[in-house]
Amino acid sequence: MNLDTLCMHAGYTPGNGEPHVLPIYQSTTYDYHSTDHIGQLFDLSVDGHMYSRISNPTVACVEDKIAQLEGGVGALCTVSGQSATFVALCNILSAGDHLVACSQIYGGTTNLLAVTMKRFGIEVSFVDCMASEEALAAAIRPNTKAIFGETISNPSIDLLDIEKFARVAHAHGLPLIVDNTFATPVLCRPIEFGADIVLHSTTKYMDGHASVIGGAIVDSGNFDWRASGKFPGLTQPDESYHGLVYCDAFGRAAYITKARVQLVRDLGTYPPAIAAWILNMNLDTLALRMERHCRNAARVAEYMEASPKFESVKYPTLASHPQHALAAKYLPHGCSGVISAVVAGGRPAAACFLNHLKLASQVVHVADIRTCVLHPASSTHRQLSDEMLAAAGITPGLIRFSVGCENIEDILADIEQALETI
Ligand code: PLP
Predict the structure, then answer these.
(1) According to the model, what pLDDT value does residue 393 have?
(2) Which CATH superfamily is domain 287-419 in?
(3) Whole-prediction pTM value?
(4) Ligand 1 cavity residues, CB under 6 Å
């Protein structure tokens, strides 16, 4: 099936006389008729749901859909994008380990890596996402366990050269973890370019209607944990499952199974069935929505670039984007709805523009069906120092303009009337 068909049909196929729409299994637990069977579930020697902190039939269908969309061997849903990032990393990093991450990533992820994970003894080095292979390799230490970046960075709209990053990671026996939130699998499937693990804040385009916070981790199944020799958590016995070895018991699905049955079991970051159901309904239209987002955003970016009221506009389809050529390779069907632009006149002019928009709303959100806008330096990224802001590509007049699916003429008219007030 093609991707737009998978959006609607993957994950759930009703049998004869069964509900046409994915049912919501609103149950914390599951009935079994023998203690032996429950024992086998606890030993992970048979498949089945035992408790909805670890798996649930409704969520499982959505996980299957997301895995198929990204082309992975399995997926795990989480209660937020933040918990997806945390689980994806802590599945393979422990105290004393080190991570190489791109500087141009979501501010909340920067906090998670540089503040909270640091408290747990995990160190991070930030590198520019446009770093040369040599510079990237130079950041890798003997205790480095992964390389991390965003396909399209939030909010600076820089692109990750996935093949290049995967090449360097693999040459050092490391997995490449890619946050594919802004691109979605409709626009880019990082696994096809060598990414090993793909993450999502499903809160963004996947849900796309500002209705449910969520996250997802997808395992490509391609990384050879054993050959790397750096991941004892996957290749040595887990005493909490009587000495089970994930790579032996689950083969290509070792990473994603460990994340679920060990970390999510202990952290309690599994989403409720209703949240997964809403996500699933919205995933049905993901491909349709992305097409409109991309078309509208390309028009808005051109309009903004032609206006003297903007100092600069960053959107990958514009020839002025520093990585315009990479967009053709990684994002041939469009570059999402998110534009990063610097309003001429700095912070006061940006505030004036935002305050006068009528259709577009100022919300702490992005990648939504309704056009929305945010000033990162005073919101999502306000915890970052000036140096970190500069490294993340954020200046005082920068706005993140998330173009929705409304009629393009209405969006442009709104921008025009707000610009007249500056
Ligand atoms: N990754 C990216 C690229 C994001 O933009 C966000 C949130 O904005 C997150 C991760 C965190 O996701 P959530 O807000 O769902 O926890």
Answers:
(1) 67
(2) Aspartate Aminotransferase, domain 1 (3.90.1150.10)
(3) 0.97
(4) 80-82, 106, 108-109, 150, 154, 179, 181, 201, 203-204, 213, 215
